[in-house]
Write a structure and sequence with these properties.
Distance between the termini: 32 Å
Strand content: 15-25%
Helix content: 10-25%
CATH architecture of the largest domain: 3-Layer(bba) Sandwich
Radius of gyration: 22 Å
Oligomer: single chain
Structural class: alpha/beta
Number of strands: 24
């Protein structure tokens, strides 16, 4: 996600000032956030031809897995032993993933589709009577656990299955607390309506024959017939780049790698604690602006200021969540049944999401209200004021379209 966002951003911002190369281990880009709903027939992973995307952007595609970086020689080494030179580099290789609970279904991990379908069959044929969904502590993006719990609950209700115990265990004090109090209230209500029990402030540390070992818990392990969780994340530990003790690349607010002058990094490979595609895209935008400015483009680089955007799949009407985790509007954050960004993609990237929507029919917007024109736009005041505003066009009504502020007053806009 971050690599393609950076590619499109540089093409847009720098134009022919920069010759672009994309180094990737595969010929396809796999867009996976909707794959969580695939066992229920509610989504699937989609694949896009990287060659076609590079051709659109005037870029050269180099197939190969990044093995190491040689900053002193300004070269990237790939697993086949080839060296590729650069004047500026954006490293966006993602994090390593691995299962951490034995015998648990790992969301979007190896065998996820078959394991999840087998779990649903076991519920339907009453071979098991409960499923526990676990949000692990650490940098994993928690949204898919909530989605799978809600979709499973809806699946159970549609089949009239009685006596099914669905439970969500999370280390968070409140559900999806990253998005603020309003989102937590909404998600808590959704879980209650779906009859999914919630155990918050409970960190699962291991799983044994007697159940889930949870801290703090004074009354022994938590019994769990079937468990669903996320993969454990670790950094890529690329030789030649400075990393923390977990292998994540150290970067500054512009994505510049610690101690380097022309090497940037973005996405899950970095030390930025929130590992999510939209956040990765915002990091990529910051790096692309810095590089474009170095190349002489009329761009003022802005530091990375994370804004969380999450589409929560529920099995019926999704919820759109938005929060400014870098500060700004406090707890006054959005929760809506309508899209808070456009196109209404699962992962919001300033350049990649519109590109996929325009060129690859990536997002189905038929569920939006007729006559709606939802857009997110940035309204900049005079540079001396240093203030940015955002607004969204909501569906047209009899009185015409309404322009509603998202980031504060839009006086004079």
């Amino acid at each position: 996600m971050a690599a393609l966002e950076a590619l499109l951003a540089l093409h847009e911002l720098a134009g022919d000032r920069i010759a672009l190369k994309l180094v990737a281990p595969d010929r396809d880009f796999s867009y996976r956030p909707l794959a969580v709903g695939e066992p229920f027939g509610l989504g699937e992973a989609r694949r896009y031809d990287l060659g076609a995307i590079c051709s659109d952007q005037g870029a050269r595609l180099i197939q190969g897995a990044v093995e190491a970086v040689e900053p002193e020689r300004q070269r990237v080494l790939t697993a086949d032993g080839e060296g590729h030179s650069y004047d500026a580099l954006v490293v966006a290789v993602g994090a390593k993933t691995s299962p951490w609970l034995d015998q648990a279904v790992t969301i979007n991990g190896p065998g996820y589709m078959g394991q999840c379908k087998a779990m649903l069959e076991d519920l339907e044929h009453r071979r098991i009577h409960g499923v526990t969904f676990v949000v692990p502590a650490g940098g994993a993006w928690p949204l898919p656990v909530y989605e799978l719990a809600l979709m499973t609950a809806r699946w159970v209700a549609e089949r009239g299955l009685e006596g099914v115990d669905l439970r969500l265990v999370t280390h968070e004090d409140r559900p999806l607390e990253l998005f603020g109090a309003a989102a937590s209230d909404a998600v808590e209500s959704l879980l209650g309506e779906a009859r999914v029990a919630l155990d918050a402030s409970c960190a699962v540390v291991s799983m044994g024959p007697d159940g889930l070992h949870v801290a703090p818990r004074g009354d022994g392990p938590l019994v769990a017939e079937s468990v669903v969780t996320l993969a454990k994340l670790s950094g890529p530990s690329i030789p030649g780049l400075p990393v923390d003790n977990q292998g994540f690349i150290r970067v500054d607010p512009h994505g510049l790698v610690e101690g380097e002058e022309v090497v940037y990094a973005a996405g899950d490979a970095t030390t930025v604690p929130i590992k999510q595609g939209g956040i990765a895209a915002q990091q990529a935008d910051a790096a692309a602006e810095a590089i474009a400015a170095r190349a002489g483009a009329p761009v003022t680089p802005e530091p990375f200021r994370p804004v969380l955007r999450g589409m929560l799949l529920t099995g019926s009407t999704p919820r759109y969540l938005r929060a400014e985790v870098a500060g700004g509007r406090g707890e006054d954050w959005e929760v809506s049944r309508h899209a808070l960004w456009w196109p209404p993609s699962k992962i919001a990237g300033r350049y990649l999401s519109p590109y996929l929507a325009r060129h690859h029919d990536a997002f189905d917007t038929r569920g939006e209200e007729a006559g709606a024109l939802p857009v997110e736009i940035e309204l900049e005041q005079h540079p001396s004021e240093g203030v940015r505003r955002r607004a969204v066009m909501q569906p047209r009504s009899a009185e015409g379209p309404a322009l509603l502020p998202l980031d504060g007053p839009c006086a004079g806009a």
